[in-house]
Every structure is written in C-alpha cells, then in structure tokens.
Write a structure and sequence with these properties.
82% helix, mainly alpha, single chain
C-alpha cells in the first residue's frame, strides 16, 4: 500500500481514476448519442417531429431518474461493502434494487401505453405535437421494463468497479439505434418513412439489445457479483431498512430534480415550437459538455465509498480535493466546447430563424451553467452520497428548483409574459443559487460516514 500523497500513490490514484472515468465518460457520451440521434435525424424532418420526440421522452427521462436515484442510493451501500469485501450483501442489495425498479417500470409502462395523450398535455398544447408525441411514447413504452433491468444492473456493477460492460452494452445500443432510426425515419432500403414513429421503434429496439446483452453477461460471464433470481423475492429487514434509509432520499431527490427539469420543458413547451426545438438542441449540447464530469462524479462515489468502507476516511478527504480540482478544470473545458458548438449546431439543424435566435441565447447561458452544475454534481452525487449523506442533496435540489426557480419562471412566462431568453435564464439559475451551500457542506465533513454492517 502506497503512502498517502506520495508520488507513487498519486500515480496509482490517477491511473484508477482514468480507468473508471474514461469508460463512464464514453457511456455518458453514448447515452447522449442515443438521444442526439433522434434530435439530429428528426431535426431534418421538422420542428413538430423534434418537439414531439423531445417532450414525449420526458416520461422515460423521469423513469430513468427514478432508477438512477434508486441505484445511486444502492451505491452508497454497494461501494462501501465493496471496500469491505462483502460481496454477498452487494448481491442482496442488487436484488432489492431490481425488485423496486421492476414494479416502477410496470407502472410507467401502463401509464405511457394507456394514457399517452394525457401525459403529452402536460408538456404541450399544440395538437400536432401531442398526436406525434403520443405515438412516440406508446411505442417506446414497450421497452421500459427491459430498460429498467439493464440500467439498474449496470449502475450497480459500476459501483463495484465493473464499468467496461456498460461501455459495451451502450455502444451496441447506440449503433442499433442509429441504424434503425436511419432506416425507419427516412425510409431507406425500401422501408416505409415513419418519421417520429421510426425514431420510437429505433429507441425501443436499442433498449431490448441492452437487455439481452445484460442477461448474457449476468448469467454467463460475471462470476464475482452474481444476479440471483431468488434475491428478487428475499426479505432482509435490516438490509432493507438500510436500503430505504439511503436510497429513498436519493430517489426522491432525483425524482424531484427530474420532474423539475420536465416542468422546465413544460414551461418552455407552452411558449411555442421554436422555443421547444431550441431547448431540445441546447440540452443535447449541455449533456455533451457534461459527459466527462458525470464520469468524474460516478468515479468519486466509487472511490470515496470504497475508501470509507475500507476504514480509510483520511484517504476519502484527500481524494475529494483531487476530484474537485478536476471538476473545475472540466467545467471550463465544457464552457469552451459549448461556445465552439454553437455555430455548428445552428448551421446543421433545420430550424427557423426564431428558433435559431433562441438557441444562440440558450447555448450562451449553458456555457457558464456547466461550471456550477459540474461542481454541484460531483459534490452531491459523488462526494456526499459516497459517505451516506443523501438528505442534504434532496434539500438543496428540491428547495432551489421547486421552491424558487420554477415558481418564478412560471410567473415570468405566463403572467409577466417575459421573452423566452429571460425565462430561460431564470429556469437555469438553480445551480448558481445552491453552490455556496453545497461547498459549505463539503467543507464541514458531515458527509463522511461508514454505513456498513457485519452480516453473518
């Protein structure tokens, strides 16, 4: 074992970080690519198509945020038990997470198949957008359950440093999505040109490809942390209580944040197709600028959680400082990326002059937004959750977004009738509002807790 802060220890640290961050950054890039495939291809069809797919995708977005919260809460336990060397408890946590995710996916599937028009009304009042979006949602919903299994399993594997499998799964998914999209959106090789419906079929087929690869890996290849069907039905009161304690605040946090982002889309959605189209493109660019930062946040949670589980809290403190320095640097790189991408996106997308004007402003706002967003994400998602401090993030995210930004943004849009750019600035100000409180919490070290138990 290397001495902390020695040259050899630092080399080992950054080598581990690279081994974790690079595959996860690629995964994040691929996930954005799946969304970008729809946006770019449908952008060639028209504003109604891109608006419909973007708004209909909000239901899946909310569901995946539930899964992300669920698995992030599970990772509080799995990363620390991984450091402790207790693999069997990790398998039990995986079973609890999958059981909860499957029940949730069934509910979302039923709602999206039976009531897509009513769900679309939450995001738009334009009949053509609602009709196209309902078709898109109904088709995509057929893959919600397999998507739940794949996402939860891969996220838990990531917390125990099994990150390459996710890269493989999502790489195949991206290729499948692009291929099916191209054929069915534009009607290549004699296939019918289905537009929005073609994009939905492509997305659903991609989700099924993820599911089957995950099943093969789980039952045929992974011999370390096994997926045991019996754990889906196993009741372990003590572990379930721990899971609830740490997973519920994170899940609620992600749901509050996710529904808040959907509410932002709903507010913008009621300001016209031009605003929706511009926001759809801006969100893809923002996600591209954040792919590495999100990888750093996940690596932070893994490495700090493992160090805490191993009984090395001082290492966790030192690691957190290093991750923060990386995050600030990545934030400025993200800013440069967005500013460079702005003229490219405006020339590639088939947007009207009004939408292009909105997009220009939105990308400028995003260029400084990613710095604050990156710092908050690494601290809340990475540092705090690694130490079991899951409630603080819930308070911060919910308080700023639902308590301040959304009410003021709605008033600005619907009562004061402010221009789109002004409303957009308000709706993206939550990261700036909470950053001071988040840094204060980090410096207090109240987040640093060992949450493992000794199980027989």
């Amino acid at each position: 074992m290397y001495e902390l802060n020695s040259a050899a220890e630092k080399r080992s640290f950054y080598k581990t970080v690279l081994a974790l961050v690079l595959p996860m950054a690629i995964q994040n890039l691929i996930n954005v690519g799946v969304q970008a495939a729809d946006v770019v291809m449908l952008g060639r069809v028209g504003e109604v198509a891109i608006s419909a797919a973007s708004l209909a995708g909000q239901v899946y977005f909310i569901m995946t945020l539930f899964f992300f919260g669920l698995t992030s809460g599970a990772a509080v336990l799995t990363a620390q038990y991984w450091g402790k060397g207790d693999v069997r408890t990790i398998e039990r946590v995986l079973g609890i997470a999958l059981r909860t995710a499957l029940l949730t996916a069934v509910l979302f599937t039923a709602a999206a198949i039976l009531f897509p028009d009513y769900l679309m009304l939450l995001f738009s009042h334009e009949a053509d957008v609602i009709e196209a979006g309902a078709d898109y949602m109904r088709i995509c919903a057929t893959a919600y359950i397999p998507a739940a299994v794949a996402m939860v399993y891969l996220n838990v594997m990531r917390s125990v440093e099994r990150v390459i499998i996710s890269t493989v799964v999502y790489s195949v998914s991206l290729l499948v999505n692009i291929a099916v999209n191209a054929v069915l959106i534009f009607g290549l090789f004699g296939a019918p040109a289905l537009g929005v419906r073609g994009a939905a079929i492509g997305t659903a087929v991609a989700r099924y490809s993820e599911f089957f690869i995950v099943l093969f890996y789980a039952f045929k290849i992974n011999k370390t942390v096994r997926l045991r069907v019996g754990d889906l039905f196993r009741t372990d009161k003590l572990l379930s209580r721990d899971f609830t304690k740490y997973a519920v605040p994170v899940t609620v946090n992600e749901l509050m944040w996710g529904t808040g982002i959907s509410a932002v889309s709903a507010i913008i959605g009621h300001m016209g197709k031009a605003a929706v189209s511009a926001n759809s493109v801006a969100q893809v660019v923002r996600q591209l600028a954040m792919v590495v930062t999100l990888g750093v946040a996940n690596a932070t949670a893994i490495m700090l959680g493992k160090a805490i589980g191993e009984g090395r809290p001082e290492n966790a403190k030192v690691y957190s400082v290093r991750f923060m320095k990386m995050t600030v640097l990545l934030g400025f790189m993200g800013t440069a990326l967005i500013l460079a991408a702005s003229p490219i996106m405006q020339s590639v997308m088939q947007l009207g002059e009004e939408a292009k004007g909105y997009l220009s402003v939105m990308l400028f706002v995003m260029s400084y937004f990613v710095i604050f967003s990156g710092i908050n994400t690494v601290l809340i998602v990475g540092v705090f959750r690694a130490g079991g401090d899951t409630k603080f993030g819930l308070i911060m995210d919910s308080g700023t977004l639902w308590g301040i930004v959304l009410p003021i943004g709605a008033i600005a849009a619907f009562l004061l009738k402010l221009p789109v750019w002004a409303v957009y600035v308000i709706l993206t100000s939550d990261e700036l509002l909470k950053i001071g409180f988040v840094i204060w919490r980090y410096r207090s070290y109240k987040w640093l807790q060992n949450v493992t138990r000794d199980f027989d």
